[in-house]
Amino acid sequence: MATEFNLPGSSFEEVQKIMKGYSSAPDQASLDNLARLTGIHKTIISRNNKFLTDIGLITGGMKKSATELGRKLGRALDHKQIEDAQNYWKEAIQGNEKVSGLVTTVRIKGGMTEKDFSDHVLYVSGQKNTSGNKTGARCVVDVLLAAKLLEEENGKLVVSAAPTKELLADTKPTAVSSDASTTEEAEDGNGLGTLPPTLPPIPNNANLTPQIAIHIQLHLPETENAEVYEKLFKALREHLLSPRD
After folding, report:
1. Cα(25)–Cα(67) distance, rounded to whole angstroms?
2. Could you point out which of 28, 55, 180, 192 has its C-alpha 20 to 30 Å from the C-alpha of 155?
3. pTM, 2 dp
4. Which domain holds residue 86?
5. What pLDDT, in 10s, does the model give residues 196-240?
């Protein structure tokens, strides 16, 4: 069967303890070393090694070591860093096409009960229908839940929704405002100074007849001769205030 893959040999709780052990053990640790570190019998650890190798958390032959990802996961679990552990589980699962493909089945079916999905995991794994493999299949379900690839909703397992809050924050357009806050944001955000004031809207019933206004600035000479000012004001009256036709 093309979709065959190895199942864990323990519950999810034991698999987490094993990963904590691998993350703190020296490279090429023996099963005896890991058994002493974790308090789990070496035969139980051995039953999980194929699955942990398949998803890239450990590597090696008779003696195995945690990969960089495995060490990160084990440390996050040991320090109860739930969000980091979730991301490392997700990275491990998405690195294995056969295991990550299980999520597609849930998406296609629009959700499955935990029992139906666990039975499906056991079936497509190609392993025998034994109590130990049933435990392993259930462990895979728990791993997918821990990775937030699946979540429980209305009594069913469904594919986790995308983080819409982050997406909205990245794509939300910036509103342009004409109040003082916009001016402050422009000044603080890019250092280009304040925005020019916004012109008030023209009412619908406003008089739209063009009007011309002329502003004249006079620079008067500095002098104490009164005759100069008299001639200047006389010229203004003749040419501007009372111009001749």
Report:
1. 12
2. 55
3. 0.66
4. 12-159
5. 555 555 555 545 555 666 656 666 666 666 676 677 667 766 766
CA-closest candidate to residue 13, choices 116, 139, 168: 139
Query: Which neighbouring-strand residues pair with 29?
Result: 64
Host H or E run for residue 152: strand 150-153
Task: Establish if 208 belongs to a structural domain.
Answer: no
Number of domains present in the structure of the chain: 1
Q: CA-to-CA distance for 90 and 82, rounded, in angstroms?
A: 12
Q: 223 — alpha (psi -120 to 50), left (phi > 0) or beta?
A: beta
Would you give the DSSP letter of residue 10?
Answer: S
Residue with tokens 């990275």: 91
Single-letter residue type at 97: E
Does a structural domain hold residue 245? no
> Which one, of 74, 70, 59, lies nearest residue 29 by Cα?
59
Assess if residue 19 is contained within a domain: yes
The CATH number of the domain holding residue 96 is: 1.10.10
| Segment holding 228, helix H or strand E | helix 226-236
- Three state DSSP letters for 29-78: ECHHHHHHHHCCCHHHHHHHHHHHHHCCCEEECCCEEECHHHHHHHHHHH
Beta-bridge partner residues of 157: 112, 152
The tokens of 194 are what?
């304040």
How many CA atoms lie less than 13 Å away from 218 in the CB half-sphere? 8
pLDDT digits (tens, 9 = 90+) for 72-115: 999 999 999 999 999 999 999 999 999 999 999 999 999 999 99
64 half-sphere exposure, CB direction, 13 A CA radius: 28
What is the token pair recorded at 186?
A: 């422009």
